[in-house]
Amino acid sequence: MTELTYTDLADLDPSTGELELSDRASLRRVAGLSTELSDITEVEYRKLRLERVVLVGVWTEGTAEQSEASLAELARLAETAGSEVLEGLVQRRNKPDPATYIGSGKVRELFDIVVATGADTVICDGELSPGQLRQLEERLKVKVIDRTALILDIFAQHARSREGKAQVELAQLQYLIPRLRGWGESLSRQAGGRAGGANGGVGLRGPGETKLETDRRRINKRVAKLRREIAAMDTIRATKRGRRVANEVPSVAIVGYTNAGKSSLLNALTGAGVLVENALFATLDPTTRRAVTPEGRTFTLTDTVGFVRHLPHQLVDAFRSTLDETAGADLLLHVVDGSDPAPEEQVNAVREVLGEITAHHEGPLPPELVVINKADAADELSLVRLRHLLPGAIVVSAKTGEGIAELVQALAERLPRPDVVVEALVPYTRGELVSRVHAEGEVLGEEHLPEGTRLSARVRPDVASALEAYVVNGSPA
C-alpha cells in the first residue's frame, strides 16, 4: 500500500474532504437564503406579488464555501428581480447532468420540495441548455429559468435609455432563439409514415410546425433591425468620443463588480448625482462627467455597467459599444468592494470580462488603478489582506469621503501629460492664449512681467504652434 505524502495530499481536490460522500451526492439545503417577508408593509412597498422561487446549484469545482457564495449571489439576483427566495439547494457533481442538470433522482426530490414550499419558479445557478430547460419544466410542472435569463430580466427592468433598452432586447432575443419550442401538440401537423397510417392521414398532412419557423424568422428580422439601430447609436457615441480625442481630453473609465460602489465614487469625484442604490445592476446606462485635477487639468470619468460572475455572453456582445469605453480610455479605475467576503473572486471576474473585451480590440488594455471602496464597512483585517493582495491599491470610502483626496492625486499623476514643453512670453493683449494653456495644458511656472505673462508649460503640439510667435529661449522642446 503506497503511503501518501503531504505533497500528494496537497495536490488532491481540496473540496473532496469537506463533506461525507453521501452528503456531497445529495441535495443540501443552504441556510440563510430565505427571504420570506415578516411584515405585510414590505409587500405594499414593493407594489407587486413576489414570485416564490427555489434556487438550485451544482457544485463542480472549488470549495463548499465558494459554491454557497455563488448561490447566495443568485439569491440576491432573484431578490433584485422581484422574487421571494424559499429554499436554496446545492448538489456536488463532477459536472451537470446533460439531460436534467441535477440528475433524474434529484429532480424527483426537487419536485417534492417545490410542492411542499408552494414555489412558482425554480432558478438554476448556471446556463441551461434547451433540452435541460424542457426536461426540468416537464418534470417539475413549474417555470424553470437559469442564471442567464435572470440577469437578462434584471437588465430589462433597469434599462432606461433608448440605447440600453435596445441592447438588452438584443441580448434577450439572442438567448431566446435556440430555446424556441412548440407548446403541447396543437402545433404538430406533420404527417409521419404512410398516409392513413398511425402517424398520418386525412387532415394530418400539412406544413408542420410553421409557427416555430415564423417566430424564428420574425425574431431574426428584429435582431437585424436592433443591430442596425445600435450601430447608428455607436456612430453617435464614436462622434462624441472623437471630439474628446481631438481635444486630447484624458479619459478614465470606472469598472468593477456590480454593487461595488462605482456610481457612488463617480458622485464623490464629480458630483454627478447618478442613482445610488444598494442593489445589483442599479444603473446600466453609462454616464460621462467632466472632472478637474488639483493642477487644473480637465479629464472625463465614465461609469460603465457592472460585471458579475459568469456574465452572459449575449450581454457582452450587446453591450460591446458601452464596454468599448473601457478599451478607449487612458486609465481604468477598477473599484473593488472591500466589505465583500470574497473580493478576490470579484477582481478575477472583472478581469475575465475585460479580457473578453480586449480580444475584440487591437492592443492591450489601458493601465489599471485599483480602488478598494467601502472602507467604512470593511474590517481592518480584510483591508490589510486586500492591500497585500492588490499592491498599490488606494483605500477609499465614497460614503464618508475617506481617501478621496488621495485618489484624486493618484489620478492626476497617472493621467497622460502633454509632451511639448514651452517657454513663452505672451503679451497681455493675447490673454486667450494664456487661458488656453491653463485649460488644455499643464502650467509649470507663471510670472507677470511688464511685457506680458511669462509661461513655462507642457502643452499639446497644436497649442505649441499657437504660442510659436512668443516662444523665448529657443523653440519648443
Automatic annotation (TrEMBL):
InterPro entries (alphabetical): G_HFLX_dom, GTP-bd, GTP-bd_M, GTPase_HflX, GTPase_HflX_N, GTPase_HflX_N_sf, P-loop_NTPase
Locations listed in the record: Cytoplasm
Highest taxon, organism lineage: Bacteria
Keyword Nucleotide-binding carried by entry: yes
Membrane-spanning parts: none
Gene3D superfamilies, A to Z: 6.10.250.2860, GTPase HflX, N-terminal domain, P-loop containing nucleotide triphosphate hydrolases
Region feature Disordered, mapped onto this chain: 191-213
Primary location: cytoplasm
SUPFAM superfamilies, A to Z: P-loop containing nucleoside triphosphate hydrolases
Record carries keyword Metal-binding: yes
The entry's keywords: Cytoplasm, GTP-binding, Magnesium, Metal-binding, Nucleotide-binding
Composition skew (Gly residues), residue ranges: 193-206
PROSITE patterns, A to Z: G_HFLX (PS51705)
Residue span, Hflx-type G domain: 250-419
Role: GTPase that associates with the 50S ribosomal subunit and may have a role during protein synthesis or ribosome biogenesis.
Annotated family: Belongs to the TRAFAC class OBG-HflX-like GTPase superfamily. HflX GTPase family.
Subunit comment: Monomer. Associates with the 50S ribosomal subunit.
Entries under PANTHER family matching the protein: GTP-BINDING PROTEIN 6-RELATED (PTHR10229:SF0), GTP-BINDING PROTEIN HFLX (PTHR10229)
The protein, known as: GTPase HflX
Organism the protein comes from: Amycolatopsis thermophila
Origin organism lineage: Bacteria, Bacillati, Actinomycetota, Actinomycetes, Pseudonocardiales
